[in-house]
Specification:
With 194 residues, this protein is mainly α. It contains ten helices and three strands; from the N terminus they run αααααααβααββα. The protein starts with a helix and ends with a helix.
């Protein structure tokens, strides 16, 4: 499991998922691999890659191989809550389990990634939002939310307990010119000749 620790510390979750998949295949060929320790890491790496469909397939293979552990069930409950977009449940599931040493950094990264996604999503969806809703999206106390979001420029109305997110700066559009279209049409024409 030293390779797993190295990949976790490097935050290379794609390579981590690939490594877990390789190890799973090796175990099918008779190698002595502790799948009960590997599967939670595999599911967590799928979550970190926002690949919940792959997590579903891993879960099906876990059930088929009858390899259930409390940690596998715990991380799957996180994936299920993410699929249902029940963010308060996600945080509750992450906080209520005693994770193994391999899983602690992954769980912390899952929380950080979800919070970063919320920082992007909320300003794009809401012009104003109640503080208790924001608390649910971030999985922290109202005070922690206010402290963090006020440093990011969000305004707060004490009377109504409503936050006003700062809209992200629009991304500049890349304009195309006729020269680019001409080059593209030349490429397509040359491909058609083959």
């Amino acid at each position: 499991m030293t390779d797993v620790i190295t990949l976790i510390n490097a935050k290379d979750y794609k390579a981590l998922a690939q490594y877990c998949e390789f190890e799973e295949i090796q175990s099918a060929s008779g190698s002595n691999i502790m799948l009960g320790q590997l599967y939670p890491v595999y599911l967590a790496s799928c979550i970190l890659l926002n690949d919940l469909q792959s997590a579903r397939h891993v879960r099906k293979r876990i059930l088929a191989s009858n390899n259930k552990t409390p940690e596998i069930d715990a991380i799957w409950s996180v994936a299920t809550a993410l699929i249902q977009k029940s963010y308060p449940q996600v945080y509750q599931n992450l906080d209520s389990f005693q994770w193994s040493e391999y899983m602690v950094p992954l769980v912390q990264q899952i929380k950080a990634d979800i919070r970063e996604q919320m920082l992007i999503m909320i300003p794009n969806v809401y012009t104003s939002i109640e503080l208790k809703q924001v608390r649910d999206y971030f999985g922290t106390s109202e005070e922690e939310c206010l402290q963090e979001l006020s440093t990011r420029g969000w305004r707060f109305n004490e009377t109504t307990r409503v936050l006003f997110p700062v809209k992200p700066a629009p991304k500049p559009r890349i304009s195309t010119n006729s020269n680019q279209f001409e080059k593209l049409s030349d490429i397509v024409l040359s491909l058609e000749k083959f």
